[in-house]
Amino acid sequence: MGGGGAKICSELPEEIVLMILAKLPCGSLPKMRGVCKAWKEVLCSRDALAKIYPDMEISSSPAFLLQFRGGLPNFILEGSSVDFRKLPSSDMGRVVEIACKGIYCCSYGRRSGARFRLWVCNPGTKTYKRIPYPSIITRDWDFIGMSFNFSTKKCDLVLGLNFHYGHKILEMYNSKSNAWTSVSMTVEDGIHPIGVGVFSKGKYYWMQGRGPFSNGEIVQLNVQQNCWIKIACPQYSWKTPVDAYLLRHQTWALTGCEGRIILVNMENSSPCMWKLREGDEYYTWSPVHIKLPKPVFQVAVNFKGWVLAVGEQLLVYNAEGAIVRTAEWDALHPNQMLSLNGNIKIVSAFAFECNNVCWPLF
């Protein structure tokens, strides 16, 4: 927009600006070149967002926006409270920790702090349920995975691993009993999770590193049988091995959904992907032939097998590997994006949901 046009637009009443913006495609507003700086300032106000995106749930914290499309409009969590928007917003922290099939696990407050809270919510019904404290809360823990069963209406969480007196504690939450149970493992078990894991077909998967010079591994946990196995990472010709240092610094990523377990190497010069294939007594990795962008910061896969890759562009691939959607992004740092089990992607202060399609907001 030229200087004269920008001056005229900046002098328009805010009500007129909102009427114009509300008629534009929601995915294009913030990045549209025709939206001048003055209009973008209007766009970021809470009143403007509420008018332009009436289906978006906006918490009382301006740092958290959530657009919800589809999901579970008729399901209310047992024992949940109504009106998800009235949750406290002070010291919000990460907010969304992990999600599965339209159900979110969220937090606010600092981990191990007195104000820390956990809750599960369904944005489709605007309801949430408080989760009791795990038996041990420390700073050194991650959500390994989350599962939701439509038939039993049961939601499970696996929280790991807390370090306590030389042992590693695996905390498991059951929504039916609304309680946590603990599984203690000795240090010799060598299980150390890195980042958020994946739930698929009754099993949890997460990455782990065993030392600065040893190869990383994938751990598979079968909760019902109370057993786990370790799966070696794929052999890769790149000079840098899959070690704990790289896993911790997000050079590698694990994602998946509904039977698809994907491991991604996000090296800037040669990003690539592998899919885990499970046999009767063995596990193998096969390459996924998708040309990822360079650089690539985050990769996710949804229940249809669609792959979403984020770099300087946002790319969505279908199950056959063809690009079905492209959007321009400013380059995003990996820490600004949170992968949620391939169902939902939260980017910094802004959100979009990708069950069937991707809706970038900002």
From TrEMBL:
Domain F-box span(s) in chain numbering: 6-56
PROSITE patterns given in the database record: FBOX
Listed Pfam families: F-box, FBA_1
Protein name: F-box domain-containing protein
Record organism: Taxus chinensis
